[in-house]
Amino acid sequence: MSFLGIDIGTSGLRALLVSDSGEALGTAEQGYTTSHPHSGWSEQDPAVWIAALEGAVAQLRDRHAAFAQLRGIGVAGHMHGAVLLDADDKVLRPCILWNDSRSHAEARALDARPEFRAISGNIVFPGFTAPKLEWLRKHEPDIFARTAKVLLPAAFLNLYLTGDHVADMSDSAGTSWLDVAGRDWSDVLLKNSHMRVDQMPRLVEGSAEAGVLRRCISQKWGLAGRVSVAGGAGDNAAAACGLGTLQEGQGFVSLGTSGVVLLARDRFCPAPQNALHTFCHAVPDRWYQMGVMLSAADSLTWLSSITGVSPKALTTALGPKIKAPGPVAFFPYLSGERTPHNDAAIRAGFIGIGKDSSRENLTQAVLEGVCFGLRDSFEAIAATGARYDKLYAIGGGSASSYWLSLLATVLKTPLHVPEGREFGAALGAARLGMTAALGIPVMDVMRPAPTAQVIKPVEGLIDAFDAAYTAFRAGYPILKSHPRAGLQ
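== Xylulose kinase ==
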C-alpha cells in the first residue's frame, strides 16, 4: 500500500508518496505564480493547483510502481484563502490569498466586535477569510451575491478529489467563522459577517475520512480499489503532524521565510491579546498555539539582496561559534509584524551603526533580531501556562549552525534538529491520509521525528542575550513613534 501527501504552497505544490511504514518513496513538485493586481493584493487562480496536482501525480505514477497501490490521500494547504464558488461549483474569481492585505479596514471592524475574539479565540487579522468576504460584499457585490460556497485551498482540492464540499477543523479555524473550542461553525460569527452556514463546507477532523476518490480520477490515475481522502489540514498543523508534535509540550520553531513558534495543546487556551493564533489541531481533541513573525529568514534574504552576498556566505563569515551580542541591533519588521504587536504598518530598523560597522556586524544584528522576534512568540505562548518539553527546529534558516546555536541561547532551551529530510507538511498530509484509510490510532502513525542533533544553549552567553532582548523589546515603541511610522 502507498499513501499520498499533497502540500499546496504559495509558490508551488509538493506531492509525497509514502509506504505503509511511513517511508518516503518519492516526491514531485510543480510551481506556479501569484498575481498582484494592486498594491497589497495577492491572488491565484485555483485551476493552477489542479494542474500542478495532475502534473505531480503524473511524475509519481511514471517513476514509482507503488503509486498503483495508493489507498489514502491527505491535502494540506496555505490557510485563510477564499475560493468562491457559484451554485454549480464554478470558480467566480481568483482566490484571495493569506498574504493579501486589502481587507485591513474590514478586519478592524470585525475585530472590534467582542464576539469574534470570544468565540474564535483569535484576533481577526486582515489575512483571515471573514474580512475578505466583507471586502467583497462592499467592493464586488455581484460576486458576493453569487457565492454559494466559500472554500479554503485545501478544501477546494478535496472537492476536486471527492466531489464534496468538506474541510477540516485546523484549516477552518483560520477563517474567523469557527467556534474553535466547540470545533464547529459559529452561527453568531457567520451572521455578524453577513454569511450563512450553508455557504460553508462540511467539517471533519483532519485524520478522519472526508470522502472517497472519484471514480473518474481513480481511472485516470490508473488506480484500482478504494482510495480514502482525509479531511487534511492547514499547513502548520500538517507540519506538526509530520513532526509528530501532537501532545502538550511538543512543538517546533520554524526559521522559514516567515518565523513560527508552534506548540501543541491538549486544551483550548486562547490569548488573542498577545496576537497569538489558537487553532484546532488536525487530530481530535487537540489544539495548537502559534506565534508568527512575518520576516524571519526573509530578513537575511533582504540583507543578501542589498549586499550581493549569499545568505550562506553571510552566516559562514561569522565563524563556527556564536559571539556575544553585537554593537548593532536590528528590528525585523520589514513587512510589519503579527506576534505580539499585530501591526501591519511598523517597519524595520537598525540602531548602533557607525563608520566602523562591518557587513558581519549587520549580519549578526539580523540573525539576533530574528531570534529576538521569535522569542517574543515563545514568551507569549509561555505566558498562557504552556510548557516546552521538546522543541524541534525546522525551516531553511535551520541549515545555519550559527543561527541555531544563537536561537537556542536566546530561547534558553535546547533545539532538536529532526533526522532526515521528510518531516514537513507533505508528510503530515500523507500521515492523515493513512489514518483515514486504515482507521488506525493517530498516535501509532504520527510518531515524533527522531532527533539527529540537539543544539544546546551557550550557557555563558545567556545573561548577555537576556539583556540584549530587554533592549530589543524597548525598540518597538521607538520605531512606532518615528514620524514616518505607518507611511507606506
